[in-house]
C-alpha cells in the first residue's frame, strides 16, 4: 500500500490530505504537525478549521486510511511520498525583510526528512515557495542523504478557503512540476497516479519545476491584480457617478476578461495574496527587474489605498471624527464561510478607526474574541508563524468589544461597517437596527451586500463601495 505523509496540518495540509484519503482508499495518509493542539483538534469533533464539507470527509476517512499525529519522524520515515505544507511567511528580519519568503519552517522540515529517511522518497512542495526553492531543498536533501534518493516535485495548491472541499474535489487543474530526468519523470507519474483517482487526466498539468513554482505565485498575483483593478475603478466610479457593479458586469461580459473576481471590496485579505506578491516583487528585484517589481507592488499599494479610503470615508462622513463614537463592525474574517482572519482587511480598518478613537463593537459568526484581540495587537507578519512562536499573551485592545450577534453590536451605535460578506448580513432586520441606533445612522458597506435603496428608505445614510454617493457624502473627501 502506498503511504503518504503530509508535514503541516493547516488550512492546506488538512483538507488536501482528507480529500486524497477519501478518493484513494488504497493509500494510507498521515498528516503530521509540531502543534499538539492542532493535531488534537483534528482528532476531535471540533476540527481546527471551519470549512464547509470538511467535517464529513474527515469523519468518513479518519481511523481508516487517514490519521493525524504529532509523531512527525515516524510517519515521514514510513512514507513513500512526503508532502510539505508548512508555513512560508514573509520574513520579518534580515535580508529581504518585509518581502522575501521565510523558508525556516521548510528548511527544518527538509533537514528532518533527510535525517529520518531510510528509503527513497518523493518530496512534494505543497507550500507556496519562491521559484527555485526546489533547487535549495534538493541540495539539503542530497547533501544529507546517506545514499537515499529523493525526487523533488512542485505541486502547488490552488484551493480557496470557504470552498476548499469543492475546489479539491473538482479542481480547474492540478499542477505537477518535476525534473526532466528519468527519475523526475517517474516521480511525476507516481503523483499523477494519485490525483488520477478522481481528477480527469487532461486537468493534470505536468511542467518543469520552475514553471510550477512560478505559476503559483503568478496565479495569485493575477487574481489579486483583478481585485485591485476593480477597486481602483471603484474610486473612479464614486468620483463620477458610475456604478462599479454595472461596470464590472459590462467588462466581465467580454469572454476574454470573464466575470469572476471582479467584486469591488474594502480590499483583499487572506494569508496569501499579499505574502505571495511581496515574494514575487522580491524575486523580481533580485533578478534585476525593478520595473516588473514596481508593476506588481502597485497591486498591494492599491489594496492599502482602498482600506485607507474606506476608513477616511467613515471618519469624514461622521463629522470628521469618530472619537468616542460606537461603530459596529459586522464581519472580521477575510471572506465569508471561513473563520480565518489572516491579513483580513478588517484589521487595518479597525486599527484606522481605533486610531481616531472610535469604540468598536465587533461581530463575526466564526471569529471569537481571543482571535480578534490577538489580531488587533499583533505585529505585521507575526500571525503567519506557528502559534507557539507568536507573542504569548497579546495585550487586549481597549475600546474593542466582541459580541455574539449583529443586534447587540449595532445597538446604540453611530455607524455600522460591513467588512465580510456573510449572507446573514443581507437579511438582518435593518428597521429594528435603525430604531436602536444613534441618529444620523450610517452604514458603510465594504462588501456591497446590503440593498442600499431599501436602507435609505428606512433612514440610513449609506455608503456602498464604488456606487453613486449619497448626497451626504458627496462633498466629503475620502482621500486625505
Ligand atoms: P497553516 O499555518 O495553516 O499550516 C501550516 C502548519 O505547518 C502549521 O500547523 C504549523 O504548525 C506546521 N508546521 C510548521 N513547521 C513544521 C514542521 N517543521 N514540522 C511539522 N509541522 C510544521 O498554513 P496554510 O494556510 O496551510 O499554508 C501552508 C502553505 O500553503 C503556505 O505556503 C501557503 O502559502 C500555501 N497555501 C495556502 C492556501 C490557503 O488557502 N491557506 C492555499 C494555497 C496555498
Ligand atoms: C486565494 C486564491 O483564490 C486561491 O486560488 C489560492 O490557492 C489561495 O489564495 C492561496 O494561495 O492561499 P483565498 O485567499 O482563500 O484563495 O480566497 P479568495 O476567494 O481568493 O479571496 C481572497 C480575498 O479577495 C478575500 O478577502 C476576498 O473577499 C477578496 N475578493 C475576492 C474580493 O475582494 N473581490 C473578489 O472579486 C474576489
UniProtKB/TrEMBL annotation:
<dbReference type="GO" id="GO:0006024">
    <property type="term" value="P:glycosaminoglycan biosynthetic process"/>
</dbReference>
<feature type="binding site">
    <location>
        <position position="161"/>
    </location>
    <ligand>
        <name>NAD(+)</name>
    </ligand>
</feature>
<feature type="binding site">
    <location>
        <begin position="8"/>
        <end position="13"/>
    </location>
    <ligand>
        <name>NAD(+)</name>
    </ligand>
</feature>
<feature type="active site" description="Nucleophile">
    <location>
        <position position="272"/>
    </location>
</feature>
<dbReference type="InterPro" id="IPR028356">
    <property type="entry name" value="UDPglc_DH_euk"/>
</dbReference>
<dbReference type="Pfam" id="PF00984">
    <property type="entry name" value="UDPG_MGDP_dh"/>
</dbReference>
<dbReference type="Pfam" id="PF03720">
    <property type="entry name" value="UDPG_MGDP_dh_C"/>
</dbReference>
<dbReference type="InterPro" id="IPR008927">
    <property type="entry name" value="6-PGluconate_DH-like_C_sf"/>
</dbReference>
<feature type="binding site">
    <location>
        <begin position="127"/>
        <end position="128"/>
    </location>
    <ligand>
        <name>NAD(+)</name>
    </ligand>
</feature>
<feature type="binding site">
    <location>
        <begin position="272"/>
        <end position="275"/>
    </location>
    <ligand>
        <name>NAD(+)</name>
    </ligand>
</feature>
<feature type="binding site">
    <location>
        <position position="38"/>
    </location>
    <ligand>
        <name>NAD(+)</name>
    </ligand>
</feature>
<feature type="binding site">
    <location>
        <position position="342"/>
    </location>
    <ligand>
        <name>NAD(+)</name>
    </ligand>
</feature>
<comment type="pathway">
    <text>Nucleotide-sugar biosynthesis; UDP-alpha-D-glucuronate biosynthesis; UDP-alpha-D-glucuronate from UDP-alpha-D-glucose: step 1/1.</text>
</comment>
<protein>
    <recommendedName>
        <fullName>UDP-glucose 6-dehydrogenase</fullName>
        <ecNumber>1.1.1.22</ecNumber>
    </recommendedName>
</protein>
<dbReference type="InterPro" id="IPR001732">
    <property type="entry name" value="UDP-Glc/GDP-Man_DH_N"/>
</dbReference>
<dbReference type="Pfam" id="PF03721">
    <property type="entry name" value="UDPG_MGDP_dh_N"/>
</dbReference>
<dbReference type="GO" id="GO:0051287">
    <property type="term" value="F:NAD binding"/>
</dbReference>
<dbReference type="InterPro" id="IPR014026">
    <property type="entry name" value="UDP-Glc/GDP-Man_DH_dimer"/>
</dbReference>
<dbReference type="InterPro" id="IPR014027">
    <property type="entry name" value="UDP-Glc/GDP-Man_DH_C"/>
</dbReference>
<feature type="domain" description="UDP-glucose/GDP-mannose dehydrogenase C-terminal">
    <location>
        <begin position="328"/>
        <end position="452"/>
    </location>
</feature>
<dbReference type="GO" id="GO:0005634">
    <property type="term" value="C:nucleus"/>
</dbReference>
<keyword id="KW-0520">NAD</keyword>
<dbReference type="GO" id="GO:0006065">
    <property type="term" value="P:UDP-glucuronate biosynthetic process"/>
</dbReference>
<comment type="similarity">
    <text>Belongs to the UDP-glucose/GDP-mannose dehydrogenase family.</text>
</comment>
<dbReference type="InterPro" id="IPR036291">
    <property type="entry name" value="NAD(P)-bd_dom_sf"/>
</dbReference>
<dbReference type="GO" id="GO:0003979">
    <property type="term" value="F:UDP-glucose 6-dehydrogenase activity"/>
</dbReference>
<feature type="binding site">
    <location>
        <position position="33"/>
    </location>
    <ligand>
        <name>NAD(+)</name>
    </ligand>
</feature>
<dbReference type="InterPro" id="IPR036220">
    <property type="entry name" value="UDP-Glc/GDP-Man_DH_C_sf"/>
</dbReference>
<keyword id="KW-0560">Oxidoreductase</keyword>
<feature type="binding site">
    <location>
        <begin position="86"/>
        <end position="90"/>
    </location>
    <ligand>
        <name>NAD(+)</name>
    </ligand>
</feature>
<dbReference type="InterPro" id="IPR017476">
    <property type="entry name" value="UDP-Glc/GDP-Man"/>
</dbReference>
Amino acid at each position: 500500500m502506498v503511504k503518504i505523509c503530509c508535514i503541516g496540518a493547516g488550512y492546506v495540509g488538512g483538507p488536501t490530505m482528507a480529500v486524497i484519503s477519501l478518493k484513494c482508499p488504497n493509500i494510507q495518509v498521515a498528516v503530521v504537525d509540531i502543534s499538539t493542539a492542532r493535531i488534537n483538534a483534528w482528532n476531535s469533533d471540533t476540527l481546527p478549521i471551519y470549512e464547509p464539507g470538511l467535517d464529513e470527509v474527515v469523519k468518513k476517512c479518519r481511523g481508516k486510511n487517514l490519521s493525524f499525529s504529532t509523531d512527525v519522524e515516524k510517519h515521514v520515515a514510513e512514507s513513500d511520498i512526503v508532502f510539505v505544507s508548512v508555513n512560508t511567511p514573509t520574513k520579518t528580519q534580515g535580508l529581504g525583510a518585509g518581502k522575501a519568503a521565510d523558508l525556516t519552517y521548510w528548511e527544518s522540515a527538509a533537514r528532518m526528512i533527510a535525517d529520518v529517511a531510510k528509503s527513497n522518497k518523493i518530496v512534494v512542495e505543497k507550500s507556496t515557495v519562491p521559484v527555485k526553492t526546489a533547487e535549495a531543498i534538493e541540495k539539503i536533501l542530497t547533501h544529507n542523504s546517506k545514499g537515499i534518493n529523493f525526487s523533488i516535485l512542485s505541486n502547488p495548491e490552488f484551493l480557496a478557503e470557504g470552498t476548499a472541499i469543492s475546489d479539491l474535489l473538482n479542481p480547474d487543474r492540478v499542477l505537477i512540476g518535476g525534473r526532466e530526468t528519468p527519475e523526475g519523470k517517474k516521480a511525476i507519474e507516481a503523483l499523477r497516479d494519485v490525483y488520477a483517482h478522481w481528477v480527469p487526466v487532461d486537468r493534470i498539468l505536468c511542467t518543469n519545476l520552475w514553471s510550477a513554482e512560478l505559476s503559483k505565485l503568478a496565479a495569485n498575483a493575477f487574481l489579486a491584480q483583478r481585485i485591485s483593478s476593480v477597486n481602483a475603478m471603484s474610486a473612479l466610479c464614486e468620483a463620477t457617478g458610475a456604478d462599479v457593479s454595472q461596470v464590472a458586469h459590462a467588462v466581465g461580459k467580454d469572454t476574454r476578461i470573464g466575470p469572476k473576481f471582479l467584486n469591488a471590496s474594502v480590499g483583499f485579505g487572506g494569508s496569501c495574496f499579499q505574502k505571495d506578491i511581496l515574494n514575487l516583487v522580491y524575486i523580481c528585484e533580485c533578478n534585476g527587474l525593478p520595473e516588473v517589481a514596481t508593476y506588481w507592488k502597485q497591486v498591494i499599494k492599491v489594496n492599502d489605498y482602498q482600506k485607507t479610503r474606506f476608513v477616511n470615508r467613515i471618519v469624514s462622513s461622521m463629522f470628521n471624527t469618530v472619537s468616542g463614537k460606537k461603530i459596529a463592525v459586522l464581519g472580521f474574517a477575510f471572506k465569508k464561510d471561513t473563520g480565518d482572519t489572516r491579513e483580513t482587511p478588517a484589521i487595518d480598518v479597525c486599527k484606522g478607526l481605533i486610531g481616531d478613537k472610535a469604540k468598536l463593537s465587533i461581530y463575526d459568526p466564526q471569529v471569537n474574541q481571543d482571535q480578534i484581540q490577538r489580531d488587533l495587537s499583533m505585529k505585521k507578519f507575526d500571525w503567519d508563524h506557528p502559534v507557539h512562536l507568536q507573542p504569548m499573551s497579546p495585550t487586549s485592545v481597549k475600546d474593542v468589544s466582541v459580541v455574539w450577534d449583529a443586534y447587540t453590536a449595532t445597538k446604540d451605535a453611530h455607524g455600522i461597517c460591513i467588512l465580510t460578506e456573510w449572507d446573514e448580513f443581507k437579511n438582518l432586520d435593518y428597521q429594528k437596527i435603525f430604531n436602536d441606533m444613534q441618529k444620523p445612522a450610517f452604514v458603510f458597506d465594504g462588501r456591497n451586500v446590503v440593498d442600499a435603496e431599501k436602507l435609505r428608505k428606512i433612514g440610513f445614510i449609506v455608503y456602498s463601495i464604488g456606487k453613486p454617493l449619497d448626497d451626504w457624502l458627496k462633498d466629503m473627501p475620502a482621500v486625505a
